[in-house]
C-alpha cells in the first residue's frame, strides 16, 4: 500500500529530472549561415572599381534546398535532413548575400544590387543562378550543381552548367557549411572571370 502512495511522487520526480536534463544539454537545434570567402581570403585584393555595377539574381533553389534543415547526402539517391542542424535564415537569401559579397571582394566594387533592383540601377553585368544541388557528406565533399546566365546589359553572353566540389575538412556541420561556402566562392570566381 505504501508503494502505491509513492508512485505519483516517483513519476513527478522522473518527469522533473527529464525536463531538467533536456534544458541542460539535451538535443538542441544549432543554426548556421554561409560566409563570403572572398572577404576573408588571403588572395590579393583587386584594384578598386567603384563604377562597375553588378546585378545578382534572380537566384533559385531546387525544392530540396528550400527548407530550414541542412541537407546531406547518404548515397546517390538517399538524403538526410538534420533536424538539429538548420539554417539560421532563409538559404536563398543567405546564398545571394554571400555571392554578392564574393563579387564585391573579387571585383573591387560595392555597386552590387540583388534582384529586383531599383529602376535607376543599370548594371553592366547581371547574373541569374539556378542551384540544382548543394549538398554532400560530412567528412567527405560538398557538390554544387548550378546553371548560370551572365548578361551584359540586355545581351546574354554566357550560359554555363557548373559542377564544382570542395572537401569537407572535418566531420561536423561547421566544416560542412564552410565547404558549402568554399564551393560558392569557386562559383563566384568562375562568374567573375567571364566579366573581365
How would you explain this protein's 3D organization?
- By secondary structure, the chain is an alpha/beta fold.
- It has one domain: 3-Layer(aba) Sandwich (Rossmann fold), CATH 3.40.50.10610.
- Helices cover 35% and strands 33% of the residues.
- It is built from four helices and eight strands, in the order H-E-H-E-E-E-H-E-E-E-E-H.
- The strands form two sheets. The protein has a five-stranded mixed beta sheet with strand order 5-2-6-7-8, with helices on one face.
- Strand 3 (69-73) and strand 4 (79-87) form a beta hairpin.
- The longest helix is centred in the N-terminal third of the chain and has 24 residues, at 2-25.
- The N and C termini lie far apart (87 Å).
Widest sheet: strand ordering: 5-2-6-7-8
Contiguous runs where pLDDT drops below 50 for at least 5 residues: 17-24
CATH class term:
Alpha Beta
Named CATH architecture: 3-Layer(aba) Sandwich
CATH topology description = Rossmann fold
Q: Strand fraction band?
A: 25-35%
Largest sheet: 5 strands, mixed
Mean pLDDT: 88
Topology:
Elements (H helix, E strand, L loop, with lengths): L1 H24 L4 E3 L4 H4 L13 E8 L7 E5 L5 E9 L3 H17 L4 E3 L10 E12 L4 E12 L2 E13 L5 H23 L1
Parallel strand pairs: 1-4, 2-5, 2-6
Antiparallel strand pairs: 3-4, 6-7, 7-8
Please give a handful of descriptors for the protein shown.
196 residues; alpha/beta; Rossmann fold; five-stranded mixed sheet; 4 helices; 33% strand; globular; signal; ABC_trans_aux; ABC-type transport auxiliary lipoprotein component domain-containing protein
